[in-house]
User: What shape does this take?
Amino acid sequence: MLPWIQLALAIGAQLAGSVFVSTPAFLIPLLHGERGLSLVEAGVLAGAPNLGLVLTLVAWGALADRIGERVTITAGLVLGCGAALGALFADGYVWLGVFLLLGGMAAGSASSASGRLVVGWFARERRGLAMGIRQMAQPLGVTVAALAVPPLASAAGLGGAILLSVILTGVLAIACVVGIRDPRRPARTAEVPRAANPYVGHGFLWRIHAVSILLVVPQFALSTFGLVWLVAELRWPALAAGALVGGAQFAGALGRIAVGVWSDRIGRVQVLRRVAIAGVAVLLALAAVAGLEWAGPAAVAFVVATCVSVADNGPAFTSVAEFAGPAWSGRALGIQNTGQFVAAAVVGPGIGALIGLVGYPLAFALLALAPAASWPLIPRHDREHPDS
Assistant: This one.
């Protein structure tokens, strides 16, 4: 029972951070349509929390390797609650961007340490399932933001939308400090004082990191600009568009469980190879129906593309932790997430500029280049640390 409690708390901590990080993306219609910010400026604000994550993920992972997950996750949630309060009372868009950046920095604790917590509490034969469930947290956070932020912003402005993150991070900080238990891990001995660096002499982790960077580009592009595409191009009502985006994220979250079980059976990297091929196909299909402006097929294609775009995270994350081993998994997962969120921080302004230049259909088609480029980089076989 205890491992499942730890999994639930890991999900909650990650979800709270995901809601904070995702909130600015769902404020783009307000910022761009009503407040007069350009799409690039609004994209910069949407990317600020992801930039904050980039700056601290490895440090949070190293801290978890040294002092454990309980203190690391709780500290990040407390700091995140403070940053959300700062954003709530920010005077102007510059200060709003600063507090969004700081909140992203705090959210990095759960991104690095919660995965380490789950890997430590579950055996390999159930780890894909457990990590698949844990990986639901990010799309579930986007789902919560997609469903809650537009109506909150419409009713109470920016402050009403940001208050949601204040509440979530505060409640989860209390729950985690009470409930998290660090997993038992092999003690270091005099004969083996320090685990070998898994990045030295092996290319496995570097290849998984590179693949994950490429595969995350469509994920963040769709979650950031899906709502504004539906509203501006297909003329959906904002609430209906938010419901579709939220539903797509929820479907993707459920799909991660199935993908996790699948990876337990056929291997992590074999799943990644299939996800990359599927990603090319669904993005090209989305581009086609977007160009034809078929609202119904476009909605279906968007949901399918969203599900496929998030399917790689669980197997890749689990593969990194298993190869790095318990002494290095926090740092390795921090590096894994750093690469992904570097890409995410670039996606906001970069894809915003691309859409402005070529339009949504061609931009969706060009996104298919990312999974296409990832396929030859994916290793052919899984590899594990003996202590994993």
Remarks:
- Residues 286 and 301 are 5 Å apart (CA to CA).
